[in-house]
Amino acid sequence: MTEQPSHVPSTRADLGKDPARVSGMFDEVAPAYDRTNTVLSLGNDKLWRVATTRAVAPRRGQRILDLAAGTGASSVSLARSGADVVAGDFSAGMIAEGKRRHGGIPNLSFVEADATALPFADEEFDTVTISFGLRNVNDPEKALREMLRVTKPGGTLVICEFSHPPAALMRGLYRFYNDRVLPVVARAFSSNAAAYDYLNESIRDWPDQRTLAGRMREAGWEKVAWRDLSFGIVALHRARKPAAPNQA
């Protein structure tokens, strides 16, 4: 697992996505992270979380890995079903804040985890999900293969991530919001506005829905499909790990 030093400077990370620098920024914004996201998304983050939870369809008896879990807001939604949920994040600050807020939930645990080198056994989880975190990984393809490794045959992957609106008008409005509005709001509500400059750049550099689906198939996932949320500002991808031969 990548070591995350606590002395990382708070300058904006570049698109090389150096794990230590990105992790350091998330450590700094952890206490106000959920509130800031709600403001910046105009409250849509809660709707996206509901859609992701429904796509995962958690139920009692399942073991679920929630990556890029941050402070655990998405993990709590999954744990309400009675499933055994592991909230993983590569930011020590986020994990600490998650434990402080939700450490008393018996079927929810927090683990510091690098998505490219997950500290779990093969075929350990029924479902793996990651929300708004895959684009922050320095090697997304390797992360997709790691998620496949720790998922049971026949298990599922759910990815909720910022994407690219297919309609030209919405793309223009979205780009205007990200370029002109988001930086102003981030400076007002966040302890580290530079982290949200990085957010804007990482969204612009991220592939569209079809390209991500292709990368998931290349990593070994099958039955890949997606649907757009909020006119394609966010896309929800779902896939399945091929079943073992005697399960097919």
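The above is record 1. Record 2 follows with the same two-line structure.
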Amino acid sequence: MTDKSSTILASLANRRSYYTLTPSSPIPDAQIHSILKSIIHLTPSAFNSQTTRIVILLKQSHNQFWDIVKSVLLAKIGPERFPKTEEKLNSFRAAYGTVLFYEDQPTIAALQGQFKSYAQHFEAWSEQTSGMHQLMAWVALEAEGLGANLQHYNPIIDGKVAEAFDVPTEWKLRAQLVFGAPEGGVPAEKEKKPVEEVLKVFGGDT
């Protein structure tokens, strides 16, 4: 393994789900913007479709987002069941920022019309593209000293979030990456399946 691949894999190995986050950042907002800008320009997509859209919410906007999530879930599950959910949502709100990952539906539809032989695959390819952006953002932010966790409160929050942050209705929300300065130490590594169960190799030198 070369030094180049070791550096990349070390960053991936260090990625964790941090749930105790504070409303501060070891890097300036401009650097957060630059990281996400680079990721959205460099991450590949099927047919170079570039379907992913990103919304960065920091500080007050981040708080506003989680207040919206709280109001939507309170209305959905009722006050009797809400306290436990509210505790979890408050932990996300206590962080510094949230990255919203969207997929642009008109782009997908246009590709389905243009490449009819592959039409049934473009939605799956869109999800794969989004997943790559999510992982790259997660790893890159953690490499800068931020902790993060990935949430999925879509689609029940989509309408109110789109209205609050002027998000086009054609964008489909896929995930929310919450980040901030981590507290409480590094979470333990999760158990992984034996590599022999999940990897097969044919040909080449062993």
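The radius of gyration is 19 Å.
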